[in-house]
Predict the structure.
Amino acid sequence: MEIPITFLLSFSILSFLIIIISLFSSSSTKKTTIYEPPSYPLIGSILSFNKNRHRLLQWYTELLRLSPTQTISIPLLGNRRTIVTTNPENVEYILKTNFFNFPKGKPFTDLLGDLLGKGIFNVDGHSWSSQRKLASHEFSTRSLRSFAFEVLKDEVETRLVPVLSTAADVGATMDLQDVLKRFAFDVVCKVSLGWDPDCLDLSRPVNPLLEAFDTAAEISARRATEPVYAVWKMKRVLNVGSERRLREAIKTVHVLVSEIVRAKKKSLEIGTGVEAKQDLLSRFLAAGHDGEAVRDMVISFIMAGRDTTSAAMTWLFWLLTENGEVERKILEEVDPLVSLGLGFEELKDMSYTKACLCETMRLYPPVSWDSKHAANDDVLPDGTRVKRGDKVTYFPYGMGRMETLWGKDWEQFKPNRWFDSEPGSIRPVLKPVSPFKFPVFQAGPRVCVGKEMAFMQMKYVVGSVLSRFEIVPVKKDQPVFVPLLTAHMAGGLMVKIKRRSQC
């Protein structure tokens, strides 16, 4: 019993000293040019952070609204200072103007390194540059876009629509979020790996790769909400609790993806040369990449594409149940295109649907925040001084809620805010919006290479589903937004599916 008693005594003394220090320091806190919550010597803002750690999105947003520069500082015990900004000039400076001074940085790559390894979304410098060039080339090819569209069309017509039709016929309640996640995982695995997990067969158990990805993504994301990073790092060293479950999930992901890579490589080696080689994995192998490098690359692309589009579509389908006039306008746009056969070219005409998707992601961005780490001392455009090693976070969730950026009606779901009308034009034209005001796909050199493919997928699904079915939520409660690596609805979106009368 001596060790626990000594520990408790030491902790009590330290706590008493912290309280005394905070009392004496509260009246003499120096004024700074950057807004921050109550902060004390030694412990920084850890008390406020810990109090609000389960509502960080709302807390950060509240603080940012109070800040004249739309930038705040969060000093924490044992961690470098975190700077959070919703200022578009700062975002442009971080993501573009002084891009090389704001890499991901080791503290960030530590969070996801166990899962993503040295894949494109978790590296900097030459490794990132070489992977980026390869990915940009492949995503710009007509052959990959055509292949991705055919995969998308097949998955919608032969799996997603039949699943929704069955639910409509039997009157079953279903979790639309779960269905869309399964759908998106099927699509991204087919495009990235040339492998079909068949997750929309609801009669089968959850695919072990999907289950492992979900577990690994959730625990990796929760590392970032620990007020003291040493906590999760110690748990990892001891291999206990959540870190033990994370290690097991990551092992499953790595083993299963490595098996797919080996099988793909073998099939390419013994192929006759007639094989299409259309998926990303085949293309990477053909470019000479092998082993862990190609494994990490495809894991990164699966992670980026598996839940982002499904999250945006889930929130849009819910918002449409609350905004009947918007749904009617989407149908007016979609119905003529569907009657002609919703093809690749027809998707380009779905500007109102795209505006609805943008408005959805403004309010409910699939990635709520993203962080970089300063390589050297710097000064942001709003005058915020950055020290080497500081974590600098741009905050899409908060940016979508700033009156200074979107007006007093920022709370309202208004797709029309995305349009300009050209003189004499009957059809409204989508207006250009700075990616540094709306950075849901990042911006600058790291802008998402799959952005256009994501819009293609979302427009096709929304058009195909809404033209056939009505989505009716079982509950009228406001869904809860949960950030993690990719945001989702707590508890899913439980709905009834009804066929439209004209179908």
Notes: The longest helix spans residues 241-270. The chain has one domain: 122-499. The chain has a mean pLDDT of 88. The chain is about 55% helix and 10% strand.
